[in-house]
């Protein structure tokens, strides 16, 4: 059952993953037990699918390459894109798979240690799938904002000072 408390909890934790249940209860004007029970129920119902910690791996001293791979596929009779999407998301290298509109059908995101590692994934695992008829790989060069969080430091204005 969808309640106003449930909506408020979801809105808050979507932007504040590390949440103290007591503080959240105070913010929402309810008690900690009600919040904890509602969150446990939403986890059980798979409304809350997991918790994400966003890490700037570059600052942590580990360089990872992130790629967005557009995939054009031949949909399967009575299954559409679901079976092929499931086959792709089962690879451990895959972070996410989305059905998209446009020239391609699926958008796959992966991370690897190098451009070569990602290229090998595409050529060795993705491209040989019979239903895959085309791919386009795009590498993330810099993240400015990810999951609503501004990454890195804000750039200083590059405008020159004009003095009279």
Automatic annotation (TrEMBL):
| Keywords of this entry | DNA-binding
Q: Which residues form the Transcription regulator AsnC/Lrp ligand binding domain?
A: 69-142
Instruction: List the InterPro entries hit by this protein, alphabetically.
Output: Dimeric_a/b-barrel (IPR011008), Tscrpt_reg_AsnC-like (IPR019888), Tscrpt_reg_AsnC/Lrp_C (IPR019887), WH-like_DNA-bd_sf (IPR036388), WH_DNA-bd_sf (IPR036390)
Question: Is DNA-binding among the key words of this record?
Answer: yes
| GO biological process, any | response to amino acid
Q: Which GO terms describe its cellular component?
A: cytosol
The protein, known as: DNA-binding transcriptional regulator, Lrp family
């Amino acid at each position: 059952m969808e309640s106003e408390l449930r909506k408020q909890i979801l809105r808050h934790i979507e932007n504040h993953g590390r949440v103290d249940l007591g503080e959240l209860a105070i913010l929402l004007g309810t008690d900690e037990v009600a919040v904890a029970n509602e969150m446990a129920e939403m986890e059980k119902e798979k409304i809350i699918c997991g918790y994400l910690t966003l890490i700037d791996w570059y600052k942590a001293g580990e360089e990872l390459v992130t790629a967005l791979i557009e995939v054009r596929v031949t949909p399967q009779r009575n299954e559409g894109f679901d079976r092929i999407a499931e086959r792709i998301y089962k690879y451990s290298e895959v972070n996410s798979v989305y059905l998209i509109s446009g020239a391609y059908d699926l958008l796959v995101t992966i991370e690897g240690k190098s451009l070569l590692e990602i290229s090998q994934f595409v050529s060795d695992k993705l491209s040989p799938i019979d239903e895959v008829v085309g791919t386009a790989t795009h590498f993330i060069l810099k993240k400015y904002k990810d999951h609503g969080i501004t990454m890195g430091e804000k750039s200083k204005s590059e405008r020159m000072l004009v003095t009279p």
